[in-house]
Amino acid sequence: MARVKLVLAFIALVILAAGVAGAAWYWEKIARVDMKMSQEIEGRGGEKRDVPDLGKRHFDKAIELLREGELQAAQETLYYLLEYYPESETYPEARRILGEVNLDLLISKTPLEGKTEYTVRGGDAPITIARKAKTTIDYIMRANGKMSAMIYKDEKLTVYPLEFELDIHLADRKVIVTTKDGKFFKEYEILDTNLPSTLKAPVSTTLKAKVAWHGDRYVSIREKQYMNAQKWMQSGKQGLFIRHVPQTPPAEKENAPYGVMLSKPDFEELFTIIRTGSPVRLHS
User: What class, spelled out in words, does domain 116-159 have in CATH?
Assistant: First the structure.
């Protein structure tokens, strides 16, 4: 009987030893390897390793191209960065620079698809040329270096169809300009807002009017007061205006005009490139 117990104890010891050996093998060959791989990915101590910013090289390339005066190549590189590397730390600055490049290419004499040269004919007026070319008189003046809206027979004018859309993002404090197919063009910072309490996002409307006001009356682009006139853009939704911040803010908030407020330079740019009838969307 004692001999049987001894044999059973020996068998139990062998089984225990085999279990310990199996556990040791599993730790060495599998668990330890998995832990090592995890540490390689995450970094020692469980901390995340720094992931290379793959967008930065494209950003640096775009800056180099800009220094060389290669605006269109830089534009393509920045669009590539925005599409494929939105997580890049360079994304916000790339977006800002791309907007500036887009505007420079639009206003300059650089050839673009859709940009054409129009020869003024007898009987033409700036407003009829702008409507025919789907552009604005302000754009015609700026793109052609004109200080007034006076035009002359046989004068050659650069024109471009301005088919942009506006998205006003209140939470992000941005007015974003896109092309009609949704491609980013430029964005502007909202400095202040004063909207009716009854106006709630989302809103989808169009730009109803672009107004220039001097003294106590509306002024046209042909008048000398136009350049220094107070301007605003009025949408088809009551209370939704786009303006520039006033030089002298009103003493009381309730006396402030309704609108989304931009800096004056930003507003003047927007006023130049946005046509009456353009889609306008308000987002919370």
Answer: alpha beta
